[in-house]
Amino acid sequence: MKGKEWYKADDVAEEYDSKRFSRGGRLIDRREKGAVLDALSPVDGKRVLEIACGTGRFSVTLAERGADVVGLDISRAMLTQGRQKAHEAGVADHISFLLGDAARLPFPDNYFDAVFAMRFFHLADTPAKFLAEMARVSKGQVFFDTFNDFSTRVVYNWLLPMGSHLYSREDVERLVEGAGLSLATESHDFVVPYGVYRKIPGAIASDIRSVDTAVGDTSVGERLASVSYWNAEVPELDGEAVERASEAE
């Protein structure tokens, strides 16, 4: 089963968090949430859109810190999990979960302070269209991650052929430029691919992570990183565009 079809299955949604973010996967969860918070903070009072929100891991984390969040996803089952998670965290009044297509976002231009997507672009069949839509509805910031083509992720893709798309830096630069964005900051991580961490106990994963981080802090390790986080900026609006954005609110 290919990526998108697999992702939308009901049984996948029910087990998604427990299979990926338990055991050594907790390290991945912490790192990803940290990357999002580092990029978007401070989030208190911000209007934020999450593309491919899944079970709401990031949406709930941002809502707990005062953001007003819209989470959009193509999977009804994932959205059900997200609503339950938001209710349990007491932030359901700060999150709206919507079923929708990221290539045709149902929002006006410049509507959100920030738009982000995690674990999305490796499954995106039309990445340029998706990023352009994210840029269109953001008036400040677009943040996303990619899986990289010069990394151990290549082996993982070969062993588990789910149709994941791997990106070079040049690919990302073309996407960012094509969407009318400018790249502000970037970071690169996980020489050891996600799949290894998910299969081992937390204590062992912590030791591996220490080595992974030490290697990743070198120029060679950065080049071999399997994941990159890209923080892009939307060009400043002119006076007329600012007025239109204010009217849309």
UniProtKB/TrEMBL annotation:
<keyword id="KW-0489">Methyltransferase</keyword>
<feature type="domain" description="Methyltransferase type 11">
    <location>
        <begin position="49"/>
        <end position="139"/>
    </location>
</feature>
<protein>
    <submittedName>
        <fullName>SAM-dependent methyltransferase</fullName>
    </submittedName>
</protein>
<dbReference type="GO" id="GO:0032259">
    <property type="term" value="P:methylation"/>
</dbReference>
<dbReference type="GO" id="GO:0008757">
    <property type="term" value="F:S-adenosylmethionine-dependent methyltransferase activity"/>
</dbReference>
<dbReference type="InterPro" id="IPR029063">
    <property type="entry name" value="SAM-dependent_MTases_sf"/>
</dbReference>
<keyword id="KW-0808">Transferase</keyword>
<dbReference type="Pfam" id="PF08241">
    <property type="entry name" value="Methyltransf_11"/>
</dbReference>
<dbReference type="InterPro" id="IPR013216">
    <property type="entry name" value="Methyltransf_11"/>
</dbReference>
